[in-house]
């Protein structure tokens, strides 16, 4: 586990907990089983059963969709708990109450409350609880203690055996599935969908975004098997229209009951965010029974209010001007493709320089190929985690995609950002120049700290 920020700036209690968590298996090391997390939930008294939940899986768009769902629920005066991963800057971001990350004090208190029980489970199991399993236990305990009216829970990886899957979501959401974590989930979107569909429980309502054909088939087959009701984007709900607007986009969405929600402004860029908004709205409608037990649609003014207040840090986030610096957490080819499309649509850069640091377990060549058409040049670098692809290997792959003359190598991220800004400013049209920092959530988080974004 990486530190959530400069360790010297973190309170001692949080630093100590991060150090303890770092001794456990990291998120990319897995032993597919729910035995450990089930044992922890048992000993904690099943806190995840105290509140209803909306459970979100998929490959891309999970966090943005979770944040939209949270905003909508809050607009209808429900107390929310949100669990997402990974974090951008601070580990406390992963557990939110009422739209805000829990305080450091609450994070420390929650860890201290469950730590004796974590040790008991460790002693009884052949494999100790992982970092992600402990965090999941903390989130479920914190939500029960608050207490929340509803939990919005994002899967860490996969679905069936993901630690979050000890919760029974009355509503299950599947965002777009693409190839990622193929060594653990399968090498086709259909195989990956089989694993992710495991969050759809008997009697649940499954809200499904547009999917590749084999993924859609796998999800539908699982839903039929467990007796879940399915709502599909493009059929039962969807985006009716979208227009580019200053600072975001203006949407008309069709909900589950057939009602149209017009003049929906979201301050986020990219067609993919419009689809995320459509899925989020359908999930909240499903939660309230719209289209089933309830005939009338949601209050449109509250829906507008909620979407207008949505934020998604590190997702096409502008953090500087002159030149414009944009952060985006795209880390696989599918994510890079939608980011590249959104950049072209929303920003109109005449010259865009990329800063890329990626994880070694990703399809980095595919990511680079997706970005190549929109980047004039690329500065390759490394982030600070052990999972980072070495700058030399990344440079070799970048040269194969961009050509040697378009690739600059800077081992340190701060130097890479400075080099990219210089390259952007070297062009004739400074007003149309920009820098895109991408390749990993970790890269974006570290860049955010370097650039002083709060």
Short description:
With 454 residues, the chain is an alpha/beta fold. It has helices at 12-22, 35-44, 62-75, 104-124, 131-145, 182-185, 189-196, 213-226, 271-288, 300-308, 333-346, 364-371, 391-402, 413-425, 441-450; strands spanning 53-57, 80-83, 95-97, 100-101, 150-154, 171-174, 205-208, 229-232, 238-245, 248-254, 260-266, 317-320, 324-327, 351-356, 377-380, 407-409, 433-438.
Keywords summarizing the entry:
454 residues; alpha/beta; eight-stranded mixed β-sheet; six-stranded mixed β-sheet; 17 strands; globular
Total number of strands: 17
**SSE class:** alpha/beta
- The side-by-side strand order for the widest beta sheet comes to 4-3-2-5-1-6-7-8
**Termini separation:** 22 Å
Runs in which pLDDT lies below 50 for 5 or more consecutive residues are: none
What number is the mean pLDDT?
Answer: 91
Principal-axes shape call: globular
Rg, Å, rounded:
21 Å
Provide the helix percentage: 25-40%
**DSSP helical segment count:** 15
Instruction: Report the β-strand fraction as a percent range.
Output: 15-25%
Largest sheet: 8 strands, mixed
